[in-house]
Amino acid sequence: MRALVVRKDEGTGETFAAVEDIDDGQLPDGDVTVDVEYSTVNYKDGLCLGAGGGLVRAYPHVPGIDFAGTISHTENTSFRVGDKVILTGWRVGENRWGGYAEKARVKSEWLVPVPDGLTTRHAMAVGTAGFTSMLAIMALENHGLKPGCGPVLVTGAAGGVGSISVSLLAARGYDVAVVTGRPEAADYLRDLGASQIIAREEMCEVVKRPLEGETWQGCIDAVGGAMLARILGQMKTRGSVAAVGLAGGANLSASIIPFLLRGVNLLGIDSVMQPMDTRIQAWTRIAQDISLDTLEEMIDMASLSDLPQLGSDILMGKVKGRVVIDLAR
Q1: Smallest Cα–Cα separation from 241: which of 219, 209, 226?
Q2: Strand order of the sheet with strand 176-180?
């Protein structure tokens, strides 16, 4: 079978990735084997395709933190050969081989059935990014987010999580404002449902006041760092921010005043180790809420051989929307 394999030169420490033919006997242990049809490209994949970012434990390594496909072998009676399934998270593609191969062997308890209304291609157009987006929306709504109660801000909006977040929020009737450092993406974001485009530079301005005007009832933040610190001071009373990424930095130098005087909530979103009932709920909501026509507008198709360049591009913020890897290409 074909796989995108990352190898490491033990002498220099350098890594290199290339498509290889490997034996499926090299796959890790697991009670289910999946014929992978589609995978996608996430920020973590970019790290694993390069130096590893501390995520990869052993080489050679097959990255790919998510995939969708058809079960070809199962030792678990909860699944049958021919079932369509999705995998996201569980450190697959990080500390064990992932979806950048024509077959994957995993634990059955990590798999989610593809919900009615989605194909395996649609599932990976959504992927980890869209799964994370829905987890963020669910967390915000559990903390009081409602359509008609003020705008919802999405940062890093042209990326994968941001694009799906804008689409899902708009489909549910929210007024969506976005922050982007790519002015050329403005029309793309409006087509997804954004009503207000804010330049990244504007939101990165440092202000000394711990509180600004109450502007956002909620926020899905993929940036972190100084931008997140400023957004906290712009939240409405009892508004919530769902933190999903750190493209702008892992450190947060923020005042505690928004939490004390406005009751602002900062919600951490972990998509990797979510329990199965939450996963099923999120994927069911995605299938119900996502506009497949809008989803198609986000997709660029690619092959295994495109991945080394795509991994570099996503780390540099050059990937817009969703890149779906077709294992048949």
Answers
A1: 219
A2: 194-199, 176-180, 152-154, 216-221, 235-243, 265-268
Residues 6+ apart with CB under 8 A from 171: 193, 289, 290, 291, 294
* Average pLDDT along the chain: 95
At 116-126, the pLDDT tens digits run: 999 999 999 99
First and final C-alpha spacing in the chain = 13
DSSP 311-322: HHHHHTT---SE
Q: Check pLDDT > 80 for residue 206.
A: no
CA–centroid distance for 243 within its chain: 12
Strands (E), the chain: 2-8, 15-21, 32-40, 66-74, 84-88, 103-106, 112-113, 152-154, 176-180, 194-199, 216-221, 235-243, 265-268, 299-302, 322-326
Structure tokens given for 296 = 């198609």
**Residue 31 in 3-state DSSP?**
coil
> What does the pLDDT look like over 158-203, one tens digit per residue?
999 999 999 999 999 999 999 999 999 999 999 999 999 999 999 8
Sign of CA dihedral 4, 58, 129, 275: positive
The answer to whether the predicted template modeling score (pTM) of the entire model surpasses 0.90 is: yes
The residue type at 131: F
CA neighbours closer than 13 Å in the CB half-sphere of residue 44: 27
To which residue do tokens 């990014």 refer? 129
Beta bridge partners of 242: 220, 267
Sign of the CA dihedral running 226, 274, 113, 74: positive
Residue found by looking up tokens 């996201």 in the block = 88
